[in-house]
Amino acid sequence: MTRITCAEGVDRLMDYFEGVVPADIRTVVEAHVSGCPRCAAFIASYCETPRIVRQATDVTLSTDGRQTLREFLVKLRSS
Amino acid sequence: MAGPDTEMSDEALAARAAAGDASAFEELVTRHQNRVYRLACRLTGRESDALDVLQDTFLQVFRHLASFRGEARFSTWLYRIATNVALMHQRTRARHPAESLEDFLPRFDGSNTHRQTPEELRVASRVEELLNHEMLAARVREAVERLPELYRVAFVLRDLEDVATEDVAVILGVEPAAVRQRVHRARLMLRGFLSDLAGVRP
Predict the structure, then answer these.
(1) Interface of B with A in 17-76 (CB under 8 A)
(2) Given this structure, which CATH class describes domain B10-92?
(3) Fewer Cβ close by (within 10 Å): the C or N end of chain A?
């Protein structure tokens, strides 16, 4: 394989970023992206998506929640 | 018996807790309660359900600590329990059919080139500038809940909880390649969803 399309590049993105694509495919993907502003823009938003979702869904257990769990576990151990 | 050393590994604490050391068990709960709660929120979509999942998870941990052999990390074992509890909890709750996220997958023309312009393809990255945090959080939680369960679980563990792909594979009992494929599909759907929120339908 010497060239790929945008669709073929998108299919390989996860494997590419996890470092599990063969070296020759990696080179072909990089060559395509370097000459494709559409793929460069797509990849930027693909990579940002986990961070945006992570921040939007972040929560912290409240003090009341910790206390409720603690009381539950105290009862559990004494039963 | 002396209290647990806060520097002690989870695995050493688990061994002490299994032998009846209550303070070791408390230390494990203290260390992991927030992560389990957050995982439960992300898998169930509701903070009220997450509290039940949190309690049930540590109930299961308490009951089955003796079966923890240290073959995987304690956190991996705990996450497997929490994931199963959360999914069981969600399956017992009546759910309304949700609109699929398939429509948000990327689109290509006849030559397999992106249909949209670079500006349109980039807009998902700008969603935080365009929506206030509360609205974005509500819509994103709804979208995560709409993901097919297989994709949702893999995505939440790998991308939101930052569990290594190999550990997610252990938790789910699948090959790492299957994890990568599921996370990828979830990212594509959610990227398209964010783009739509920002005003550009994929």
Answers:
(1) 22, 25-26, 29, 33-34, 37-38, 41-42, 47, 50-51, 54-55, 58-59, 62
(2) mainly alpha
(3) C
